[in-house]
Every structure is written in structure tokens, then in C-alpha cells.
Amino acid sequence: MLADKLTPFITRYNELSDLLSSPDITSDIKRMTDLSREQSNLLPIVEKAKEYQTLIADIADTKEMLSDAEMGEMAKEELKELEPQKPIIEEDIKMLLLPKDPNDDRNIIVELRAGAGGDEAAIFVGDLFDAYTRYADLRGWKIEIISTSPSDAGGYKEVTALIKGEQVYSRLKYEGGTHRVQRVPETESQGRVHTSAITVAVMPEVDDVEVTIEDKDLKIDVMRSSGCGGQSVNTTDSAVRITHLPSGLVVTNQDQKSQHKNREKAMKVLKARLYDLQMQEQQSENAAERAAQVGSGDRSGRIRTYNYPQNRMSDHRINLTLYRLEAIMSGGLLDEVVEPLITDHQAKIVEAAGL
């Protein structure tokens, strides 16, 4: 029975309450933080479990009243209200019982790169990053720019940022892949629609202890910064390029005036990429799917199309089409796409788990 599956969650929640109220725990900040996070994660299912248990008890008590001559009719009316609630709560519980992605609560490092389409692709990198920024503002997240490579025509050839907040990865992990844009460039005199593509990579931010990097595995080069950046550019060797020799990964950062800060941010990105590789190796099927999504940045292998002449946004993974492109992009209303993606993902897990 579903009720039996809920008992361990309630038991563990109560155990955590006892542990957190113990005087011994206050001296161990890390353990207290870990236990508090575990209890916080359990709270939604514990609350729903108690609601379900109360409902089941109420239904049982009400059914016993059916045979009573005086209370029978009232009991029938109460059951009409109580019984329809049962499948609704059961569905909520099924969602809460789904295996949770261990990275869902993490911050993310997101990388946007211009692909096919030249200047138009770079401009759209800027447009999509602006949409992510507005979305982050709406959800109370913080964005920290790690590195940028501005394009002469506007936008970015590449932009990397750290997004911090509650459940950032759980909502933005679906953004990884090739994004195709169709619109008329401002420089197009004939009014022809051009097609461009960019790629987005979404990686969980990781702690130092989760990714081990040996100094001997790193080749670190310093150089003069190039491109836009003010009077200090090209006056000091502040840009940093880190090559991870075993994997061949290369990360370059030159946005900060300090070589130390550039190295620190480059290492943060490198660790996230290495962790991403580890996840791919552990989950080979997901790795193949991700590789197919990200592709090479050409006009095929897309996950989403942004058609400006038609004011249309289409997500090809779930056959979702919305004729609200301008509003979604300018208002940061990405939940209109994210929510259906989450729902589709959950439905597939429920089906696979046989819940």
C-alpha cells in the first residue's frame, strides 16, 4: 500500500528532529547543515503523507457511519467530498516519491556559444542570456559573470556565468542543447529571414572535494588580455589559460584585472566541466542524449526554435509551440517552457517506475 511506503519518510523526519534538537549537534556546523538540508528535503513528502493518512482515517471513519440510521445520509454526503481527494493526493505523493536528481539543488555554470550564423548567432547569445537574466531576477537568483567574448556586431561569441539560487539546476538543466533562431537581421535590406544557431551547456557548480585535480595535470599559461575591457587591457599579463592534460579541456579567462581572480574563475569552470564529464561517464545513456542535443552548433540537432516573424517558440523535445516569443524573451517568462518540460520528464519517470 502507498501508506506503507510513506512510513519510513515520517520516521526519518522525526529522527532528524531529535538529532537537530540535541545539544551535541550545535558544535558541528557542517553536520547540522547537512541534517537540516535533509530534513528540509523531506518536509514536503512528510506533510503530504500526514495529509494522506488523515484523509484515509477520515474516509474509514465515515464509512463506518453508513450503517447508522441517523448518520448514514450525512456520511454519504461527506464521502462525496472526501473520496475525490484521495487520487489527487496520491498523484502528488507519486511526484514526491520520484527519484531526485542529486544536482537539482545546486547552483549552475552556464555557457552560451555562438554557432552557425556568424554575427546573428552572437547577437542571439546576448538575447538569450538577457532572457536568462530576467528569469533569474524573477526567481530571486543571482548571476555572476565568469567570462565573456564580445562580438563586434553586438552580443557575445561566448558568455559563461554562475547562476546561484534555490533549485537553479532543477529548472535550467533542460536548457542544454542547440537553440535555433529565425529572424530578419537589421542589416538585411531584402527582408529575408536568416537562420542561426547557438549552443547552451548547463553544468552543476561543484565543491573542491568533489573533483580532484592534481597540479601535475594542469598546464597554466598567462598572457595579455585582448579585446574590450578599458584602459588596463593589454598592460598586464592577467589573462589565464588552463589546460587539463588528461582530458584535454581548456578554459580561458580574462575578464578580471587580477590574474589571481581570472585563475580562480577558470578553475571553477574547469571543475564544473570535469564533474559534467564524470556524470556523463556514470550515465552513458544520458551522455549520448546530451551529446546529441548539444551537437556541434550547426542548424540541426536543435532542441528549440525561436521564430521571430511568427512570434513563435517551439520546443522540439515535447512538441510544445507557444506564440508568445517576444513576451517570454523580454519578460523572462521561461516558466512557460520549463514547466511543461518538467511535467513531461516526471511523467516519463512515473511510467518507468510503474508508480
Give a written overview of the molecule:
By secondary structure, this protein is of the alpha+beta class. The protein has 10 helices and 11 strands. The chain has helices at residues 2-20, 29-64, 72-82, 85-97, 119-139, 168-172, 259-282, 284-294, 325-331, 335-353; strands at residues 108-114, 142-150, 156-164, 177-183, 194-204, 218-223, 239-244, 249-253, 302-307, 312-315, 320-322. The protein has an 8-stranded mixed sheet, with helices on both faces. The chain has a 3-stranded antiparallel sheet with strand order 6-7-8, with helices on one face. Strand 10 (312-315) and strand 11 form a beta hairpin. Helix 2 runs antiparallel to helix 4 (85-97). The protein is flat, with a radius of gyration of 26 Å. The model is unreliable at 228-234 and 289-300 (pLDDT under 50).
Name some characteristics of this structure.
11 strands; alpha+beta; 3-stranded antiparallel sheet; flat; 10 helices; 355 residues; 8-stranded mixed sheet; single chain
Task: Chart the SSEs and their pairings.
Blueprint: H1 2-20, H2 29-64, H3 72-82, H4 85-97, E1 108-114, H5 119-139, E2 142-150, E3 156-164, H6 168-172, E4 177-183, E5 194-204, E6 218-223, E7 239-244, E8 249-253, H7 259-282, H8 284-294, E9 302-307, E10 312-315, E11 320-322, H9 325-331, H10 335-353
Parallel strand pairs: 4-9
Antiparallel strand pairs: 1-3, 1-5, 2-3, 4-5, 6-7, 7-8, 9-10, 10-11
Assembly type of the shown chains? single chain
Distance between the termini: 11 Å
The string of secondary-structure elements, in order, is: HHHHEHEEHEEEEEHHEEEHH
Whole-number average pLDDT? 82
How large is the radius of gyration? 26 Å
Question: Care to count the β-strands?
Answer: 11
Percentage of residues in DSSP E strands: 15-25%
Q: Could you say which structural class the secondary elements and strand pairing correspond to? A: alpha+beta
Low-confidence stretches: 228-234, 289-300
